[in-house]
Design goal:
Strand order of the largest sheet: 1-16-15-2-3-4-5-7
Number of strands: 28
Largest sheet: 8 strands, mixed
Radius of gyration: 24 Å
Helix content: 10-25%
Number of helices: 13
Length: 558
């Protein structure tokens, strides 16, 4: 029988009205000694506006936008972001960006927006925490990201959106009229603040079908392609302008390349808060994130990286016609902030207390390019899959790993942070050719600027490839530690191996294998994910572990 970590059922039932405990924040290392609530300021002492035109309009609207994207369910970073967002709220106008506004500025309108992928994985309790994080922090709107559709049942997604104090936006989706989600997602919204109106438009990823495992929620959605999305956005901009709204903001989850197209092929958009490709864009740079629209007006694009590692503050002055006259983009590292204990405790009231299962003696740093390099932290998860399911090999897509180990204790929450998707585990019977072909599919990521969908991490295999994405050699290491060469140019279509993998990989997710909801090579299915296997595996090691790079995947220069 499989026992998952204990969950506070009462908290789960009441999560729709659950609020963070209102007690003073202290450092997580405080040992009950009061510490400063913040370790840095979100408004640096020295800030220089990179884009600044001569302001002659007597009526200038001052705005400050707190933005996030691609937090991917990282709860420890959510706690820190909450902390930053509260500093954003309480910082007075006289303290805001002294290098951007004069100290006498007193009429700054503040907003908090998200560009999607705040949720990650199918664990509904974790999804509720992510939803409450947006509520607690005071976000007004979020784009629909691909990972919001990891919520596998439309009724669950509908409940999350019913509990949301923010609006979920997506101009380019059509939802089945019989779906419980129907009516829960808006194409745009109008926000009025300090006497000014702003139009917000959302964009869901046009490649949604490629990025999400087929589930009951996804079946209810139809997503427009890139070209049609541009037309839909322009039509909505025109509609908002007819209502007298000249400050237009897009919350986009379609990636930097498509955002650049949108900025230059439309008119009337002022800001595009971007996401999806995990770019970290600092400052304002002409031709990088500052573009001219079709009508010659400036359009600014942002992205704050991935996994909630950063947040952004975009300070913007608009003239009376809604044209940006001055803009400054500050990116802040969330690790510079503490995790307030009252938020940490509030989350644990929902999830239950984590269980300590082991300890790390030492660990190599995680790879810089998580999707295109060998990842020793992910290899430990793959080893757990192979060992616990007793298979010849294990295969794990690199995109499944969203965190890393570090020296110190390992608890169940950390494991869920590292591998959060909550897929279902399977034992597959794959031919040598199927395995080689799927690894070649993953290696295409090496040559892509986004590195998506990612290489395949392995256990029981070693392989070498070059920077052109060409597979050069491969070895199978059996349970007796004997090495068997595999001909990567002529793999055996009859020889089979038992393979530990998740259902995302098995059913053709990201195209590693042929798309098939019910593949005939499935030997056994399990109602658990790899995080459960990892916890059991680490407990059995019963000693401090070292995360080392054994070079089981090597990418060499072509």
């Amino acid at each position: 029988m499989i026992n998952l970590p204990n969950i506070n059922q009462s908290a789960m039932n009441n999560i729709g009205t659950f609020k963070p405990k209102e007690v003073p924040a202290v450092s997580e290392q405080s040992n009950n000694i009061q510490q400063p609530q913040y370790t840095t300021t979100i408004y640096p002492d020295k800030t220089v506006p990179v884009y600044n035109t001569t302001v002659t309009d007597p009526k200038i609207t001052h705005t400050s936008w707190f933005y996030i994207n691609d937090v991917h369910g990282k709860m420890t970073n959510m706690e820190r972001i909450y902390n930053i967002s509260k500093e954003f709220d309480k910082t007075s106008a006289s303290e805001i960006a002294p290098g951007f506004w004069s100290n006498s500025t007193a009429d700054i309108s503040k907003f908090k927006v998200s560009s999607g992928d705040i949720i990650l994985g199918a664990n509904y309790t974790h999804n509720k925490v992510a939803n409450q994080f947006l509520n607690w922090s005071g976000f007004i709107a979020s784009a629909l990201g691909n990972h919001e559709l990891d919520v596998v049942e439309p009724g669950n997604l509908a409940q999350l959106l019913s509990d949301a104090k923010y609006k979920m936006l997506a101009i380019n989706v059509d939802i089945d009229k019989n779906s419980p989600v129907n009516g829960k997602i808006q194409k745009s919204m109008i926000v009025e603040k300090d006497g000014e109106k702003y139009g917000l438009i959302g964009i869901a990823p046009p490649d949604m079908l490629e990025r999400v495992k087929m589930n009951n929620t996804l079946k209810d959605f139809t997503i427009a392609n890139h070209d049609d999305t541009i037309k839909l956005v322009q039509d909505e901009v025109n509609n908002l302008k007819k209502q007298g709204i000249n400050k237009i903001i897009v919350l986009s989850h379609q990636g930097i390349k498509n955002d650049k197209r949108l900025a230059q092929e439309t008119e009337g958009i002022d800001i595009i808060f971007g996401a999806h490709t995990h770019d970290l864009i600092e400052g304002i740079k002409d031709g990088v994130n500052l573009f001219q629209s079709k009508s010659g007006e400036p359009t600014v694009i942002t992205q704050a990286g991935k996994d909630g590692e950063n947040v952004g503050i975009l300070n913007v002055d608009f003239d009376e016609n809604g044209i940006i006259k001055k803009v400054q983009n500050n990116v802040i590292k969330t690790r510079d902030y503490n995790r307030p204990l009252f938020i940490k405790d509030s989350i644990e009231d929902i999830l239950g207390k984590p269980e300590v299962i082991g300890r790390v003696k030492a660990a190599v740093p995680p790879p810089v390019k998580r999707l295109a390099e060998n990842n020793p932290h992910g290899n430990l998860i793959a080893d757990a899959m192979r060992c616990e399911l007793g298979t010849d090999i294990a295969i794990l897509n690199a995109g499944n790993i969203r965190g890393s180990f570090s020296q110190g204790p390992i608890d169940t929450r950390l494991i869920s942070d590292i591998t959060p998707f909550e897929d279902k585990m399977m034992i597959l019977g794959l031919t040598e050719k199927q395995i080689v072909d799927s690894i070649k599919v993953g290696l295409k990521s090496v040559t892509r600027s986004s590195n998506k969908p990612g290489i395949l991490l392995v256990s029981g295999l070693k392989y070498k490839a070059n920077t052109k994405g060409e597979l050069l050699e491969m070895e199978y290491i059996d349970k007796n530690n004997q090495v068997h060469k595999i001909d990567v140019n002529n793999p055996d279509a009859n020889k089979k191996y038992t393979v530990a993998a998740d259902d995302f990989y098995a059913t053709g997710g990201d195209g590693y294998l042929e798309s098939n909801k019910n593949p005939d090579f499935v030997i056994q299915k399990f109602d658990m994910d790899k995080n459960k296997l990892a916890c059991d595996y680490i407990k059995k090691l019963n000693q401090p572990i070292e995360i080392t790079d054994d070079h089981r995947v090597e990418i060499v220069e072509a």
